[in-house]
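Closing statement on the iron/sulfur cluster sub-project.
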Amino acid sequence: MIWLKGILQKPLVATNENVCINCGKCSEICPMNKDVKNSSFVTSAECINCQTCVLNCPKDGALESRIGKKALKPLFIIIKVIVMFFGSIFAFQGARLYKLLPQSTRL
Ligand code: SF4
Ligand code: SF4
């Protein structure tokens, strides 16, 4: 069950104030306009986990994605978000709870 919790748990972006050089690039580049530099954690629903801030941070270890206390590679988070997004669509479609296209209408 721990692995299931890991899959379902939302990743968060965490800053390490001891390593950060306060360049502000993470806040400038965030497509959701989050003030990443001045947040210890970005956990809000506004973060789309795009990993742009983490990938563009010039200082190693200043910004990282975590699930719980475990730091994860940005590529893993991106793949996880894609799998969760499309996986949930296909699961709901398979259970006939969701349709991608509306039923055709006959005139
Ligand atoms: S992961 Fe993307 S949306 Fe989230 S804080 Fe970083 S740049 Fe902004
Ligand atoms: S991009 Fe990295 S080093 Fe620059 S302010 Fe953000 S966390 Fe700090």
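The pocket of iron/sulfur cluster (ligand 1) is lined by residues 13, 30-32, 34, 36, 42, 47-53 (CB under 6 Å). With this model delivered, the sub-project is considered complete and its resources will be redirected to Aim 3.
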